[in-house]
Specification:
Layout: H1 6-13, H2 18-22, H3 26-46, H4 54-70, H5 74-79, H6 93-96, H7 99-137, H8 140-188
Helix pairs in contact: 3-4, 7-8
């Protein structure tokens, strides 16, 4: 059983990621906390309230994962890998321990983070500077259209992103199933 103060732990567990940090899983807690804040910020910035529905899922994950870790014996808690890429812990051990895999996974996460930063920065530049300048140069009708397009742009971007993710997931699963079918056909021969 963990020796940390149970009341403090409970209070920290109400804040996504804070309880993980309290029991020593600082990197995991930081990732959860940043994901929660980024999700809320993205929902507000894009004016897509449906994204807010993901926040309770992340909160419950954080709460129950922290409590499960809290109730681990000290020796087992010490063996829990505190890694920024903790979600890869479900992968087989031989893959996770391969330094090439971690390097590729880290590079992929950094690439996605970089792309996200560029997109958010470009949107803020567009929304805060370019739209204001163009609105002053255009007629009232043109400025109204530009304002409406600028307002709807984040919603359209999120919709397109969700469609792309969905298509990738579907095609990946189809390739996986096709591969399994081909393997089973070869075994039958």
């Amino acid at each position: 059983m963990n020796k940390k103060n149970k009341i403090l732990f409970f209070l920290f567990s109400l804040i996504p990621g804070a309880a993980h940090m309290y029991i020593g899983l600082v990197k995991r807690g930081l990732v959860i906390m940043l994901a929660f804040v980024a999700g809320a910020g993205l929902a507000m910035m894009t004016d897509v309230p449906a994204l807010l529905l993901l926040l309770p899922v992340l909160w419950f994950y954080s709460f129950f994962d922290a409590w499960n870790k809290y109730h681990l014996p000290e020796d087992k808690l010490a063996k829990v890998q505190d890694d920024f890429l903790f979600f890869l812990n479900g992968m087989p051990q031989n893959m996770r321990s391969d330094p090439r895999f971690k390097k590729v996974a880290s590079a992929s996460v950094l690439k996605i983070g970089g792309i996200a930063a560029v997109i958010v920065g470009a949107y803020l530049l567009w929304d805060k500077i370019i739209v204001n300048v163009l609105s002053r140069l255009l007629s009232e009708t043109g400025a109204g259209i530009l304002s409406e397009v600028s307002y709807r742009l984040p919603q359209v971007a999120v919709a397109v992103l969700l469609i792309v993710i969905g298509v990738k997931l579907i095609t990946h699963k189809k390739r996986e199933l096709d591969s399994e079918n081909n393997d089973s056909e070869e075994e039958d021969k």
